[in-house]
Design a protein that fits this description.
There is one protein chain. This protein is an alpha/beta fold and about 260 residues long. The chain folds into two domains: about 130 residues, 3-Layer(aba) Sandwich (Rossmann fold), CATH 3.40.50; about 60 residues, no CATH class. Helices cover about 35% and strands about 25% of the residues. The chain has a seven-stranded mixed sheet with strand order 3-2-1-4-5-10-6, with helices on both faces. The longest helix has 13 residues. The protein is globular and about 60 Å long. The protein binds S-adenosylmethionine. The site of S-adenosylmethionine (SAM) has 18 residues, from helix 2. Monomer.
């Protein structure tokens, strides 16, 4: 993020008096504030209008708290919309309030969007001159992809969260005829505790990896044993200094106006 972002936002504010940023699924704002500080560094004199589309009231409250205790945000105007991306889309289309944006980001949130191609097409239509969309989600080369491909059908799964990776995303962008660049950012997650029987952190990590509540106590023993064995295999993890590090590679996809 630190290295990649300056290049990605390099021209978004050129010749502009105000930079308009739309954060989709901004959560509690930690990543958003990192992005904003990079935009401030690139364009120190320019006002920033940062609007956030986020359905969770709890996340919005945390975001507001973070903004309140962070300094150097004077040139940024924040607005929060408590809604999903499709509710935002419907609202602005109904009211014909289709404004253009300089930077739209969707970070670790497309898993929760039902119609991703329609969402991409809509938000792409809102890009102004030199504007970009940044999407971050797990890479098709990550352990997540292997886990979902191999075990997705055997894990309890609601339709709230999709097994979507950068490979699916880039295919969708190609189908839509949109220009994009995709970079992988190597990242790992220490899952060593998963292999310590009865370890509380390990149990929580297993819940996170399988998106299942209380996986360790409720999963069929054969499924649990197979997953625990596979998680130590090289397609899923690397072993380093006695630790098991899950392949959590993320992709940055930058879509051009
Ligand atoms: C994993 S968090 C990522 C938060 C933040 N972007 C980050 O990277 O730290 C996903 C966020 O997307 C939000 N979300 C879920 N469904 C959404 C939707 N349909 N439209 C917009 N945001 C959504 C969630 O409430 C949550 O805050």
């Amino acid at each position: 993020m630190e290295k990649k972002l300056p290049g990605i936002i390099a021209r978004i504010g050129d010749t502009k008096q105000e930079i308009k940023i739309l954060s989709i699924g901004g959560g509690a704002g930690e990543i958003d504030l990192q992005i904003l500080s990079k935009v401030q560094a690139q364009y120190p004199e320019v006002l920033i209008n940062n609007e956030v589309v986020e359905p969770s009231a709890e996340q919005i409250a945390k975001y507001k708290e973070l903004v309140a205790k962070t300094s150097n945000l004077e040139n940024i105007k924040f607005t929060w919309h408590k809604e999903t991306s499709s509710e935002y889309q419907n609202r602005v289309m109904e009211k014909k309030e289709l404004q253009k944006w300089d930077f739209i980001h969707m970070i670790q949130m497309l898993y929760y969007v039902k119609d991703i191609p329609a969402t991409l097409k809509f938000f792409h239509s809102l890009l102004g001159a030199n504007a970009k969309i940044l999407i971050i989600l797990v890479s098709g080369t990550s352990g997540w992809n292997k886990l979902w491909e191999k075990y997705g059908s055997r894990l309890p799964h609601d339709d709230l969260c999709l097994y979507v990776t950068s490979s699916h995303l880039t295919q969708m962008l190609c189908n839509l005829g949109l220009k994009y660049e995709c970079y992988d950012l190597l990242s790992t997650m220490d899952i060593s505790d998963c292999f310590v029987d009865g370890n509380e952190n390990g149990d929580l990590l297993m819940d996170f990896l399988t998106e299942t509540c209380n996986f360790s106590t409720t999963a069929p023993p054969d499924l649990k044993a197979e997953i625990l064995k596979d998680l130590q295999e090289p397609e899923f993890s690397v072993k380093k200094e006695g630790k098991v590090l899950f392949n959590n590679t993320l992709s940055f996809i930058v879509v051009e106006a």
